[in-house]
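Hey team,

Filing this mostly as a record. A colleague (T.K.) asked me to run one chain through the structure pipeline before their review meeting, and I want the input and output archived in the tracker in case anyone asks later how it was produced. No errors, nothing strange. Just documentation.

Input sequence:
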Amino acid sequence: MFKYSTRGLKFSTFDGLQLLVYFGVFLYLVLQPAIYSPDTYTYFKVHFYRFPGYGLFLRSFDLLFGDFFETAVVAFQLIFGFLAISKLLSSGKHLLKLKVWEYILLFMVLIFPYFPPLLVGNNLTSEGISYPLYLFLVAFSIDFLFRNQTAKFIHLSIAFILLCLTRGQFIIVAPVILVLYVLKERRNIFGRTKLFYVLLLLILPFLVQTLDKTYHKLVHDFFVTTPFSYVNALTLPLYVSNKEDAALLKVEDNRTIYLNTFKRIDSLGLLSSNVSGNASDKYMVFHNNFPVICNGNFHIPGMAYFENKTEKPGENVIMIEQTAKEMLPILIKNNFKEYISIYWEGVFHGFGGIVIACLALLLFLYSVFIALRKWSVYNGLLLFALTLIISNAMIVAFASHSIMRYLFYNYFFAVLVGIILFRKIISKT
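Output structure:
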């Protein structure tokens, strides 16, 4: 392919075409209006129950750009995202020597979230920067784990911290990288340098939580992590609960909130016991009514209930989170059979069906076996991809409902798994 050199940089016609595509997509999307969702306002007002990253991002852009705020945010989210896609493709190309069709296929999947229905570049929600940060994190992790570029650990750490301060669901990535690093270096893991990286990977999640707590102390006067995780996770246990569960709640306020919530969702028919059909049918009712159960009938009324019981602004947010934390294990244990059946339906829904979910699980077990037997780029990368795909799907099903907005981050990994398996099959035949 025709190349020419400019100050030591090689630029091909393929690179030129790719740059033209980026420019065309950017021009088209930046001219589209910014999209406001209910989450936008809670981020913009830096509500207590929102992670700090995106709220600070929006407020900063509003301060800097004023009347041009919307255009500036959309433009930044698009450019930031395209840079992240380009970086990940570059890391993948150098590592796997991607063929043109493989490169184009990955590019199409990576840029898909910028088009309907997600429109992450135009939507003023956290995905606008969390998606690029995730891609950067994956790219730097590939450089660190598979290309032996240890200096990229600094970039990896920065991307991880910023990502987790924007969307907390990705705190699992550091332990995943740690396990893969130990697996890769298991013969020399007790060397000083290796142990140093192990220690840093162990520290990263705690550092994120400390920064999160510090932010809330400065802004909301409470040294706590963002109080929303247990509220979300409690939604499915509430859906499968029974009125008799109230007797298991020892704290009177918790029992009162539970009974009030149960009465409201029961009147709306939003209990699994009110839904006929199998676990899949019951899951879909839960899936379609998650915001109603969580926000409309537990979180907002619960915050209002505790607002009358404290004089300190914002403490009611912590109190309803603590209530959810105390209710969660009790409701799950007392309704475990119903809970676990609907939970797995949520996992299956995230994969698009039980067949694909079981296939992903079998491939994961296969990747564990081959990576333990012999570490290689293909084996390690296969395990890395499948671990992140499955762990994210399971976390999302536990903490929320399995919608594309929470799952699209790993779509490109599914394509990458297909490419690796295809190459393995071809190499054997």
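Quick notes for T.K.: Residues 39 and 394 are 23 Å apart (CA to CA). Residues 192-220 form the longest helix (29 residues).
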